[in-house]
Amino acid sequence: MTLSRCAPIALFFLLSHSPTTPAQTSILGFTAASAARQTEIESKFKSIPTPDEERRQHRIFTAEPHVAGSKRNNELADYIADEWRKQGVEDVIIRRYDVYGTNPKSASLEMIAPVHYQATLREAPLDADPDSKNPAISGAWLGMSISGEVTAPVVYAHSGNPEDYDLLRKNGISVKGKIVLVRYSNPYSYRGFKALTAQREGAAAILIYSDPAEDGYKKGKVDPDGPWGPEYKIQRGAITYDFMAPGDPQTPGWASVPGAKRIPIEQAMSAPKIMALPLSWHDARPLLENMDGPLAPEDWQGGLPIQYHLGGEGVKVHLKIEMDNGIQPYYVVEGRIRGEDLPDEWVVLGNHRDAWAFGGVDPSSGTAAMMEMTRALGQLVKQGMRPRRTIVVCSWDGEEVGLTGSTEWGEQFADELRAKAVAYINVDEATSGPNFHGQAVASLAPMLVETTRALQDPSGKSLYDAWKATVAREKEEGKQSGQMNDSGIANESLADTRIGSGSDHTVFLNFVGMPVIGLQFDGDYGVYHSAYDDFFWMNHFGDPGYRYHTLMSQLWGVTALRLANADLLPFDFATYAANIRQFVDELEKGKNMWRQPPSAVQPGEARQAQLDLKPILDAIDAFEVAGKKLNNSLREKLASGQIDPKLAATLNHGMMQVERNWLNPDGIPGRPWFKHILYGARFTYAHLELPGLTEAVEARDWPRAKQQAEILEHALENNTKLVNELNQRLLP
């Protein structure tokens, strides 16, 4: 290691352990005496993770490609289990799930008219990056594509969203039986939604390419000279329709343990029925520059120095894809730090292990941070500082294919989790840069914000101040949509409370009914899901010196320890109520005809007037009043320093039940697996608040909207009743 590499590591170590590190004299959920003990525990915990260990672990996980189901990924499961046992993690077990998995056999793409071109479907090695020469790197493939062979014309369909096909129709272009070429682009949509849309439009296949306007040279210098994607970069990924039901497509709603019942794959709603392949812009360019048809609209033009046309007839290609899709084992590694006082209350932590190639950022940065966090927790236990509640930590498999490992584990232990779980804390990508983004259900948002005050950013500021600076900058740049200040709670609280899908928190929030927190540092990152997302990229662009890896280990562990050690769990239901009110206000003031005069209402839509949201707003008010009263009563009880253990158990279990009460057993209409009535995800993976009600309103299905409104109103009433019962328990 050179001096230039050591210097930032040493500097960070000094900064993170200096006397200027923020200290907190009071902590949400703790008595004064408990807060003093917690501060001591946190100080010792934060001193354990080191950048050198983060780098060492990161190298282990990025040494070879390790896609879900592969020999290397399974070896890493064994490695994690062995390391955890050495670190002092308890009850380590590897759980097997037999799932419908996916692997490539071969793929070829040949343009046969108007000129000949054979696509490379490979990523060119970079001289500066030794790992890019690894022969184990796969070619281009998309998980869960079907096998097939077709010769057909190509149509350029921009982002591949429904409105894009509407524009094609207006130009007289049909995609039925043709191959559509679409971009990973803005407006963003998950590649699985692009595939489903193409499938519904009757396309024979879909090609998805990375345009340099989105993540390549139009953004800045490309790898190996900068963080953006080079010419041959291929974004792999799955096209699973997990926005309908994540996990194993053949076991929707129950765990795919060995021997579990399975539905035929033909009946699985999450299994695609279309051929799909990703392309680099190097391979997409010959198709685009030879296309005929109308000139594409200005906002469809990309970063290549050509005019983009819609195509439809001139460019013809021969596409052949052979997949190996079928039942294979995935492995989840599970371990615990058993709680000393409340072993049957769980704080669950997780990161997925599988990667499309090396996974330098996604997920190996998170996996390295997890290993340093567990090492630090193990050392605390060896020093006699065991948490009050049990900390359960998991390494998930198959996240990239359909959020598979976490979903199967969550389905297997759903009843136990609903009885015991305090919260789930997810870290997928620990870092691709210095900008912190924290996500939480609104009841835990104040707790997360407070926690960031106790950690120091490598910049020398507190993490809280660095977070505020990121939010201010992104707001100024207009990047807040879907992030931070697009949050449903006040801007100064920082945390993003709009939670979509796309990572392992999904089963815990949307199926089990657990509060969730998500932690991530990000930055300029143009090599997502490619072979260039590796050790070289991380050491040169993502996190040279591994300072943010170390901070993530500290933050993840401190957040977990605060939930594990709190006297009274730090839930804030008044903040939750305010968050829900904003969701309802936005629905009412949105683009759903609420303010239109009667003359503007289409025939048959007069029933809209029957959807009165005032009962919901009244119920929110009552929930907020109860939440504020509980906040005050809990604060007074903690200030007294005297909490009866039986009373604490009653209060904590009651507060844990609030999130469960947001579940509708019947689920979202059309997507019964998703059961949370406040949080859901659009088919694009984007956040969707009040999903059952919002989708009914957007469909102008007023009877269904009325039914969903009543479900929300009743859930609010039930939680208000529950919180008021807790208030009664706190009366003198």
TrEMBL record:
<keyword id="KW-0378">Hydrolase</keyword>
<dbReference type="InterPro" id="IPR007365">
    <property type="entry name" value="TFR-like_dimer_dom"/>
</dbReference>
<dbReference type="Pfam" id="PF04253">
    <property type="entry name" value="TFR_dimer"/>
</dbReference>
<dbReference type="Pfam" id="PF02225">
    <property type="entry name" value="PA"/>
</dbReference>
<keyword id="KW-0121">Carboxypeptidase</keyword>
<feature type="signal peptide">
    <location>
        <begin position="1"/>
        <end position="23"/>
    </location>
</feature>
<dbReference type="InterPro" id="IPR039373">
    <property type="entry name" value="Peptidase_M28B"/>
</dbReference>
<feature type="domain" description="PA">
    <location>
        <begin position="150"/>
        <end position="225"/>
    </location>
</feature>
<dbReference type="InterPro" id="IPR036757">
    <property type="entry name" value="TFR-like_dimer_dom_sf"/>
</dbReference>
<dbReference type="InterPro" id="IPR003137">
    <property type="entry name" value="PA_domain"/>
</dbReference>
<dbReference type="InterPro" id="IPR007484">
    <property type="entry name" value="Peptidase_M28"/>
</dbReference>
<feature type="domain" description="Transferrin receptor-like dimerisation">
    <location>
        <begin position="611"/>
        <end position="722"/>
    </location>
</feature>
<feature type="domain" description="Peptidase M28">
    <location>
        <begin position="335"/>
        <end position="535"/>
    </location>
</feature>
<dbReference type="GO" id="GO:0004181">
    <property type="term" value="F:metallocarboxypeptidase activity"/>
</dbReference>
<keyword id="KW-0732">Signal</keyword>
<protein>
    <submittedName>
        <fullName>Glutamate carboxypeptidase II</fullName>
        <ecNumber>3.4.17.21</ecNumber>
    </submittedName>
</protein>
<comment type="similarity">
    <text>Belongs to the peptidase M28 family. M28B subfamily.</text>
</comment>
<dbReference type="Pfam" id="PF04389">
    <property type="entry name" value="Peptidase_M28"/>
</dbReference>
<keyword id="KW-0645">Protease</keyword>
<dbReference type="InterPro" id="IPR046450">
    <property type="entry name" value="PA_dom_sf"/>
</dbReference>
